[in-house]
Design goal:
By secondary structure, the chain is an all-alpha fold. The chain is built from 10 helices and no strands. Helix 2 (9-27) packs across helix 3 (34-41). It starts with a helix and ends with a helix.
Length: 204
């Protein structure tokens, strides 16, 4: 560890976060020893504990940081508008584009499933509750069908978006597409996903 880093706690924290994010995304929580993070960050394990506490605390910190961009964007939409079809479509597209821009988060989600970590983060829970309120309002106003649990509506669009980025390499091999066409495949899938989703949630 350099003398500069010893005298700069913020630099030390940033180095730990950068190393932890990279290794957690590559290996998941269970297979990542603190010693690997310490070595990559150029610090001691005791210094990681000093700044972040346990490995689980550090994992939660990375989870929150990875998710914060999407939460800020989505909350801005949900807090300033009433839910209608256009807003719901915009919200779905926001999440899809976030996953498209952040492949490391898609991989992190996969590790969360493998490690049976079903908790998102505090800011994510707040956004989820706000989103459910908006969906319920749309159902009460007749914008969306009211015979479906709003949580199921939310889970459906999240799951449809996440599944694409989790399974896309497999689907593209089956279809015989090439990697250079992946962006076009993303857009084609998004269009199909929106069409299927809205056929299911709009009033009949």
């Amino acid at each position: 560890m350099t003398a500069q880093r010893r005298n700069d706690p913020e630099s030390t924290r940033n180095a730990i976060i950068k190393a932890a994010e990279q290794i957690f995304v590559e290996r998941g929580f269970a297979a990542t020893p603190m010693s690997a993070i310490a070595k990559s960050a150029g610090v001691t394990k005791s210094l990681i504990h000093h700044h972040f506490g346990s490995k689980k605390d550090l994992w939660d910190e990375i989870k929150q940081r990875l998710f914060s961009e999407y939460v800020a964007l989505q909350n801005k939409v949900l807090e300033t508008s009433h839910m209608d079809v256009d807003l719901l479509r915009e919200s779905i597209i926001h999440y899809f584009k976030f996953l498209q821009r952040n492949p490391q988060y898609s991989r992190f989600l996969t590790w969360m499933k493998i490690d049976e970590d079903d908790a998102c983060c505090d800011i994510g829970d707040e956004m989820t509750n706000l989103g459910l309120e908006r969906l319920k309002e749309a159902q009460d106003n007749g914008v969306l069908r009211n015979d479906v649990n709003p949580m199921f509506i939310l889970m459906t669009f999240l799951g449809l978006a996440e599944l694409w980025f989790e399974k896309k390499p497999q689907f593209m091999r089956i279809e015989g597409e090439i990697e250079s066409n992946s962006d076009g495949s993303d857009e084609a899938y998004l269009d199909a996903m929106l069409e299927i989703f809205f056929r299911g949630v709009l009033p009949h």
